[in-house]
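The records we work with from here on pair a chain with its fold. These numbers are not coordinates but entries in a learned vocabulary of local backbone shapes. To see the layout at work, look at the sequence and tokens printed below.
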Amino acid sequence: MASGGLQLLGFVLAFLGWIGIIISTAMPQWKMASYAGDNIVTAQALYEGLWMSCAMQSTGQIQCKVYDSLLKLEGSLQATRALMVAAILLGLVAIFVAVTGMKCMKCMEDDQVKKMRMAVFGGVIFIIAGLAALVATSWYGNRVARAFYDPFTPVNTRFEFGSALFIGWAAASLAILGGAFLCCSCPRRETSYPPTRGYPKNAPSTGKDYV
């Protein structure tokens, strides 16, 4: 009963992490323009994401522009895109696999060992998806931080971490944690011991001693 609750908790956490990865991938706020300079006065906020760049005016109006050509993008941005999309697809596969192995589902009830192994396999895929998203967001954040502290970067072109990065880090952590909980439902191997040998019973004494 306890393993079933842990399994359900792990699936819920991993599913929420997968939803967060999708949201983070679609958001344009992967990095936002920094206004740390002394003499910077602007009436708009600039954001850049994996698929588009946006400018929000002081009136609240947002204008976004999708990147024109895939070939003109930086290789690191293309790799980040690929990792996030791979994390989403892996999470989708993990959901179907883990649901099949959940104790509350009626699939594969005739073989409980295989059923639990399916849940564990789904947890492993969730962990891989979380690691892919974690690598993508950390790599992107590292590039933003290096460009920010680069003395050759103009002050008016520096960017800081956007909200999509923080959502991506949290979502990746949830996916990894949920996958780990699912893996904790791994069936234990039963140790087989050799059958115990019975000791022969003593023959009843006849009262005669033989020399």
Q: What stands out?
A: Residues 190-196 have pLDDT under 50 and may be disordered. Residues 200 and 206 are 18 Å apart (CA to CA). The longest helix spans residues 112-149.
